[in-house]
TrEMBL record:
Domain Histidine kinase: 206-410
CDD domains: HATPase, HisKA
EC number: 2.7.13.3
Gene Ontology MF annotations: phosphorelay sensor kinase activity
EC class of the enzyme, as a word: transferase
Organism ancestry: Bacteria, Pseudomonadati, Bacteroidota, Cytophagia, Cytophagales
Keywords: Kinase, Membrane, Phosphoprotein, Transferase, Transmembrane, Transmembrane helix
PANTHER family: SENSOR HISTIDINE KINASE TRCS, SENSOR HISTIDINE KINASE YKOH
TM annotation in the entry: 117-144
Catalytic activity of the protein: ATP + protein L-histidine = ADP + protein N-phospho-L-histidine
One Gene Ontology term, aspect cellular component: plasma membrane
SMART domains: HATPase_c, HisKA
The protein's name in its UniProt record: histidine kinase
Length: 410
């Protein structure tokens, strides 16, 4: 885009430069002709000097005095009888003395042909410059793209690379040493990161499994201890608090184990799942839980959604959302479940979030008022949605005091 203005400016500048050169050449030509005319005036006798006006570009007239000490060049216009129009000319005026007689000499040269030459030269050179620039730009772009092709291939693979997919990154070879070094460095870095990620996942998986057994033993022992005779009220309350803590630890451990399995993509088997029927099952199963808080379900299923997903993951996703609505919902309120063209929305009435809504799907983010909450339920929902190609969004209406989670299907 910058080329055109530059070329136009260059053409204008070139035109004026050529015009100056032409002026200089015309001045030399007129000066040479003036010298010839002066020599002719010196050679011819006075009675024949009137015959010197043979050229239509030359005019000699008697003058009384030498009004011009030096020849004067001017730009003016004259009527050209041959062209039958007014033309621009370069004029030279001088006074020449022959003895006691003075003669006024006027020589002029039309600009027309020279101006056309200047214009054609300027336009031609400008067009050649633009064409040359376009050719160089085209060749440069081809070379640039060819040289950077391995770089763009590296960028494309990095965009689609996911460390949790445990897929080796294969980068293209390149004749450019810098790109080869870049590919080698990125490959080594991703291999190290994938190895560390795998070790971390194995550690989490192993730790969760190992913790589950002692937690179960502790829970069983506390149950037996609570049934023992002779316990004081204070001891019974301590045991009850310990049981609640163990149950929370066990729930957290199971959630972490589930997240690890999801990250490791262990839920690979998929099948068509009717989300509406799945919600029917869960509202029936969780009906007693909702009734304990005097809450009820309000359904508005206008659309049927059958999606291809792992059934267990679909069950966990919907179950976590409904349990979240019951757990945090206001006692005596309703839980509204609505289906759209490509969505399912679950709404409940509750207090505003005690933290930023951007942190809602992060791990271990929970309401401090609920001691038994692990802060992992919605993180599991987000992980399942991401791996299953679903969308999950949250909205809050301050006017209605209503929280809404919307699942969007592909």
């Amino acid at each position: 885009m910058v080329t055109i203005p530059v070329a136009l400016a260059g053409a204008v500048l070139l035109y004026f430069l050529i015009h100056q050169v032409i002026n200089s050449e015309i001045d030399e030509l007129l000066s040479s002709e003036l010298k010839q005319v002066q020599e002719n005036l010196d050679r011819h006798p006075p009675d024949t000097r009137g015959l010197l006006n043979w050229d239509h570009n030359l005019q000699i007239t008697p003058a009384k005095t030498a009004s011009l000490q030096q020849p004067v060049f001017t730009d003016t216009t004259l009527f050209d009888a041959l062209e039958n129009k007014v033309v621009s000319v370069r004029m030279l005026r001088a006074v020449h003395a022959v003895g006691k007689h003075y003669y006024a000499i006027r020589l002029h040269q039309p600009y027309l042909e020279f101006q056309e030459i200047a214009q054609y030269l300027s336009i031609g050179i400008a067009l050649c410059f633009m064409a040359l620039f376009a050719i160089l730009l085209f060749i440069g772009t081809l070379i640039f793209r060819r040289v950077l092709r391995p770089f763009y291939a590296i960028i494309a693979q990095l965009r689609h690379y996911r460390i949790d997919q445990q897929t080796a990154l294969t980068l293209p070879a390149s004749d450019v040493d810098e790109f080869s070094l870049l590919s080698q460095s990125i490959t080594e870095m991703t291999q190290q990161a994938a190895h560390r990620y795998s070790q971390q996942q194995q550690f989490t998986d192993t730790t969760s499994h190992e913790l589950q057994t002692p937690l179960s033993v502790l829970s069983t022992d506390l149950d037996l201890l609570q049934q023992s005779a002779g316990l004081s009220e204070a001891d019974s309350q301590r045991i009850h608090r310990a049981q609640k803590t163990i149950r929370r630890l066990s729930s957290m451990n199971q959630s972490l184990l589930l997240l690890t399995k999801i990250d490791n993509q262990q839920f690979v088997q998929v099948e068509p799942v009717d989300i509406g029927r799945l919600i029917d099952e869960l509202t029936d199963t969780l009906g007693d839980y909702a009734a304990s808080k005097h809450m009820r379900f309000v359904r508005s299923d206008e659309h049927t959604h059958v999606i291809t997903i792992n059934r267990q993951l679909a069950f966990i996703l919907v179950s976590n959302l409904i349990q979240n609505a019951i757990r945090h919902g206001r006692s005596g309120s309703s839980i509204t479940i609505t289906s759209g063209a490509k969505t399912y929305a679950i709404s409940n009435q509750a207090e505003p979030l005690p933290f930023a809504h951007e942190d809602l799907f992060h791990r271990f983010v929970r309401n401090p008022a609920l001691a038994q909450s692990t802060g992992l339920g919605l993180a599991i929902v987000k992980e399942i949605a991401d791996q299953s190609g679903l969308g999950i969004d949250y909205a809050y209406s301050a006017l209605a005091g209503e929280h809404t989670f919307t699942v969007t299907f592909p």
